[in-house]
Design goal:
It is a single chain. With 223 residues, the chain is an alpha/beta fold. It has a single domain, classed as Vaccinia Virus protein VP39 (Rossmann fold, 3-Layer(aba) Sandwich). The chain has helices at residues 11-19, 26-38, 47-61, 75-81, 98-109, 123-129, 146-153, 183-197, and strands at residues 65-69, 89-94, 116-120, 134-139, 157-166, 201-206, 212-217. Helix 5 links the parallel strand 2 (89-94) and strand 3 (116-120). Helix 6 (123-129) packs parallel to helix 7.
C-alpha cells in the first residue's frame, strides 16, 4: 500500500464528522451491513457521511427526476430519493444483474418501491434511450467512461440542473505524476479537465470522502 491507496480523510476527523452528522436511517444501516457481509468490494458503498451529503443535496434541490449511473447495492439511490418531489422518480442503472435482487428489498423497505426504477444493462445504451429531462444526475460507475456518460447525459439535464460525479479525486491518484498510466485514474483526470474548461456550467470539486465533482448546468443554456 502507498500513500495513494489510503483514504483522503484522517480516521479521527472522519469519526468526528460522523458523530456530528444526522443519524443514519435504519434501513441504510442494515443495507450497509449486508453490503459488507455479502459483497467483495464493500468500499464501493457511498456510506453514512457521503450518503447524508447526497440526501441533503437532493432535499435542497427538490428534483422531480433523478438519474443514477451505477446502483451497486442501492445505498445512494435511497439517499437521493429522499429529496424527490411528490410524484417524482429516480431511475438507477447497473450492469450487474445480481444487484437488482440485492437492492430491491431495501428500496421496498425504505418505502421507495414506486419511486425508484432500476434498469440492468449497459449504461450507454440505457442513457441513449432516456428522454429526460433530469434535475439531478449522480455518476458513480466505471471511471474510464465518466466523460462519455457526462457528454451523453448533459443535453438531457434540465437548465439549472445538477450532475454529481463520485470518486473524482480517486484516492489522490489524480495528482500523481504517472496518473495517465492507469486507465481509471486517466479517465477521472480527463473528466475533471473537461468539466473545468466548459463555459456553460458552474462546478466545484469537493474533497468529501474520495471527491465529488458538483456541476450545475447554467439556467440559460438549453443544449
Amino acid at each position: 500500500m502507498n500513500e495513494f491507496d489510503e483514504g483522503l480523510l484522517k480516521p479521527g476527523i472522519e469519526k468526528y464528522a460522523l458523530a456530528h452528522t444526522s443519524v443514519e436511517m435504519q434501513v441504510l444501516a442494515r443495507l450497509s451491513r449486508a453490503t459488507h457481509l455479502r459483497t467483495h468490494v464493500p468500499q464501493m458503498l457511498s456510506g453514512h457521511l457521503q450518503g447524508a451529503f447526497l440526501q441533503m443535496i437532493s432535499k435542497m434541490i427538490r428534483p422531480a427526476s433523478i438519474l443514477e449511473i451505477g446502483t451497486f447495492t442501492g445505498y445512494s439511490a435511497i439517499c437521493l430519493a429522499q429529496g424527490l418531489q411528490p410524484g417524482g422518480k429516480l431511475i438507477t442503472m447497473d450492469c450487474n444483474p445480481e444487484m437488482e435482487d440485492f437492492a430491491s428489498p431495501y428500496f421496498e423497505e425504505a418505502g421507495l418501491k414506486d419511486k425508484i426504477e432500476m434498469i440492468i444493462g449497459d449504461a450507454t445504451e440505457i442513457i441513449e434511450k432516456l428522454d429526460g429531462p433530469f434535475d439531478l444526475v449522480f455518476i458513480d460507475a466505471d471511471k474510464e467512461n465518466y466523460l462519455e456518460y457526462f457528454k451523453m447525459i448533459f443535453p438531457k439535464v434540465s437548465p439549472g440542473g445538477y450532475i454529481l460525479a463520485d470518486n473524482t479525486l480517486w484516492y489522490g491518484r489524480v495528482v500523481h505524476p504517472n496518473a495517465e498510466n492507469d486507465r481509471e485514474t486517466a479517465g477521472i483526470v480527463r473528466f475533471n479537465q473537461y468539466v473545468q474548461q466548459l463555459e456553460n456550467v458552474e462546478n466545484i470539486l469537493l474533497p468529501l470522502r474520495d471527491g465529488i465533482m458538483i456541476v450545475r448546468k447554467k439556467a440559460d443554456f438549453e443544449g
